[in-house]
């Protein structure tokens, strides 16, 4: 009963805070007393998250557990957003420094046409093409090297070193070589995604069970059959790991490369010009697009992974 | 029976790591020279034709390898530039790469320390509280799918406009990049102890704090160092990208940008090489500390 009261008090103070802030901008500057609502809200939110967690651990239905599993982090994010909104409007922080979430959302909705053109230029062209070429070539080179321990010994250290250095730095060089349009960005993405894929695929192809190899040997299997039936399935978790890491790297590479020169469309271009014009809400709306694109592609790959590697020991144990 | 091989026979060469690495490196160098010739000759031929000069292949080759602003400089040009800007210029000079590396290094290390600290604190919280695990963990993972690195330069410009300059803004970006591997690694590491050991401590009625100090923390060490290696490399990337817009303030990133503005490809490449060396040295340094800690804990190998 005690917890319910705390949660209710937190909920009420949350609504009250939002109401206050949306009606009187800079309310905390004039009447600092209203700030006391914020800790109440935080404590209430924390207790409701604790209660939800306990509920999730004790609930029997799988669907309900999954639903609560989504609810807890959603609540967490919501409270953070509310805090952000309260801070920005309550203290009337200048829009140049940090726009409120509501402003960003409005800009996102009203400028959706510009943003979608930028998205098409940066993501559908540079990121997608570069990601596919980079991952495919890394995969193919790994397959070729896998047969020869000698080449492996030579390439693995190079690959490891390349993954510890800031490859983003080649962006200006690629812009010089391939021009201002999306081809140069795709080139940066190819180079950034190549090495993680190479190193991971090599590690994955080595992760096969020697017992399985012996079985295939007794069946007199050919090399490509060993590859198809044992090595590739064993390598799948590693390959997906690289694909997921690369999906984020690719977006970063394409946007950074656009800072060095681009036609008048693209997410990196939008960010750099709107910063110059101090239109921070547009910058944040572009960041929102980037965040959505990054999370959705990562999530889609994770989903595909769980569909393809459900049999793998690392998944079954869960 | 094991076949005896002479130390320098073909077989032993085939199995030696340095030989393989050397061969790959030689092949890459040859490829580099060929690519430099191929990329630069186009530009040169156009230049010859414009000036109506007669040219032959040997002239083309020697020119392609000694251009002032080549599309792709050769390794020896980069090596000479490195030598010039590291040993022949004073360290305090703006042309010295040591000076710029120092700036990058300071924000890298600060960001790395902040990130490692934040990562460990988050991991401790996540391991000890189910609620934190359920609410925070999904966002820790989501945070890395957001291409923050791409907007990092802009954050620094804005913070700079608010008179918030120096190494701290860059360090914050490094921190954002480096906390993630530490959190993930440490959550795994702090959960690594055997159930048997945990139960033993429970029978001693050890407090969570004692369990943490005597069991969880020591058994997390291998995970900590593995993730610190990733974190320090990521931190360097963050620092360099953060320096891109701060041209005047120095740092390897600003060398990249000014090189790209003025078409100084040799300058870009030498900054890249220094960044690569810096990255490998930092990772090696973490590896050195890992070895020392392992030795003190009695773990060999």
Structure characterization notes:
- Chain B: This is NitT/TauT family transport system permease protein.
- Chain B: It comes from Marinomonas balearica.
- Chain B: Residues 97-290 form the ABC transmembrane type-1 domain.
- Chain B: The chain crosses the membrane at residues 20-39, 103-127, 139-161, 167-187, 223-246, 266-289.
- The complex is a heterodimer of chains A (318) and B (301).
- Chain A is an all-alpha fold and 318 residues long.
- Chain A folds into 2 domains: 2-93; 109-316, MetI-like fold (Orthogonal Bundle).
- In chain A, 81% of the residues lie in helices and 0% in strands.
- Chain A has helices spanning 2-23, 27-30, 37-58, 62-90, 101-110, 112-146, 149-163, 171-178, 182-206, 210-218, 223-258, 267-276, 280-308, 313-316.
- The longest helix of chain A has 36 residues, at 223-258.
- Chain A is flat and about 80 Å long.
- The two termini of chain A are 34 Å apart.
- The relative contact order of chain A is 0.09.
- By secondary structure, chain B is an all-alpha fold.
- Chain B has 2 domains: 10-72; 97-297, MetI-like (MetI-like fold), CATH 1.10.3720.
- Helices cover 78% and strands 0% of the residues of chain B.
- Chain B is built from 12 helices and no strands.
- In chain B, helix 5 (97-128) packs antiparallel against helix 6 (130-145) and helix 8 packs antiparallel against helix 10.
- The model of chain B has no long low-confidence stretch (mean pLDDT 81).
- The interface between A and B is large, with 60 and 58 residues.
């Amino acid at each position: 009963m005690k917890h319910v009261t705390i949660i209710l008090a937190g909920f009420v103070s949350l609504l009250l805070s939002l109401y206050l802030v949306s009606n009187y901008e800079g309310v905390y500057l004039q009447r600092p007393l209203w700030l006391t609502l914020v800790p109440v809200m935080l404590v209430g939110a924390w207790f409701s998250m604790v209660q939800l967690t306990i509920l999730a651990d004790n609930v029997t239905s799988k669907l309900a557990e999954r639903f609560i599993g989504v609810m807890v982090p959603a609540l967490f994010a919501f409270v953070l957003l509310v805090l952000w909104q309260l801070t920005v409007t309550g203290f009337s922080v200048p829009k140049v420094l940090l726009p409120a979430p509501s402003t960003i959302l409005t800009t996102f909705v009203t400028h959706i046409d510009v943003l979608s053109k930028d998205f098409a230029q940066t993501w559908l062209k540079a990121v997608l093409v570069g990601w596919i070429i980079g991952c495919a070539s890394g995969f193919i080179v790994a397959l070729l090297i896998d047969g020869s321990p000698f080449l492996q010994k030579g390439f693995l250290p190079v690959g490891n070193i390349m993954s510890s250095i800031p490859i983003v730095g080649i962006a200006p060089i690629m812009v010089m070589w391939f021009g201002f349009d999306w081809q140069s960005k795709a080139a940066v993405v190819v180079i950034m995604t190549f090495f993680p894929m190479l190193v991971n695929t090599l590690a994955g192809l080595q992760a096969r069970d020697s017992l399985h190899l012996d079985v295939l040997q007794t069946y007199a299997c050919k090399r490509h059959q060993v590859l198809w039936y044992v090595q590739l399935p064993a390598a799948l978790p590693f390959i997906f790991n690289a694909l997921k890491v690369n999906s984020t790297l690719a977006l970063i590479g394409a946007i950074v490369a656009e800072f060095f020169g681009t036609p008048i469309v693209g997410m990196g271009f939008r960010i750099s010009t709107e910063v110059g014009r101090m239109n921070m809400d547009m910058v944040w709306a572009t960041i929102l697009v980037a965040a959505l694109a990054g999370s959705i592609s990562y999530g889609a790959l994770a989903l595909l992974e769980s569909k393809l590697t459900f049999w793998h020991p690392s998944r079954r144990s869960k | 029976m094991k076949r005896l091989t002479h130390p320098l026979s073909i077989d032993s060469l085939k199995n030696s790591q340095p030989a393989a690495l050397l061969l790959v490196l030689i092949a890459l160098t040859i490829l580099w020279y060929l690519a430099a010739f191929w990329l630069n000759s186009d530009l040169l031929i156009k230049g010859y034709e414009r000036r109506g000069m007669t040219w032959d292949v040997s002239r083309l080759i020697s020119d392609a390898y000694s251009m002032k602003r080549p599309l792709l400089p050769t390794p020896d040009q980069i090596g000479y530039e490195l030598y010039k800007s590291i040993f022949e210029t004073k360290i305090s000079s703006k042309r010295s790469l040591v000076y710029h590396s120092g700036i990058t290094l300071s924000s890298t290390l600060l960001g790395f320390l902040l990130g490692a600290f934040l990562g460990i604190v988050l991991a401790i919280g996540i391991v000890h509280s189910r609620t934190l695990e359920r609410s925070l963990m999904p966002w820790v993972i989501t945070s890395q799918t957001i291409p923050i690195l791409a907007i990092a330069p802009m954050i620094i410009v804005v913070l700079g406009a608010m008179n918030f300059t120096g190494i701290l803004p860059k360090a914050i970006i490094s921190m954002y990049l480096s906390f993630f591997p530490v959190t993930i690694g440490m959550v795994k590491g702090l959960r690594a102890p055997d159930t048997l050991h945990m139960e033993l401590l429970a029978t001693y009625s050890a407090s969570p704090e004692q369990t943490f100090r005597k069991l969880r923390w020591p058994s997390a060490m291998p995970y900590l160092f593995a993730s610190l290696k990733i974190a320090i490399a990521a931190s360097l990337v963050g620092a360099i990208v953060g320096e891109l817009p701060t041209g005047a303030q120095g740092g390897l990133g600003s060398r990249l940008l000014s090189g790209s503005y003025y078409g100084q490809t040799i300058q870009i490449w030498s900054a890249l090489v220094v960044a690569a060396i810096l990255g490998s040295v930092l990772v090696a340094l973490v590896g050195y500390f890992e070895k020392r800690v392992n030795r003190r804990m009695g773990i060999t190998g």
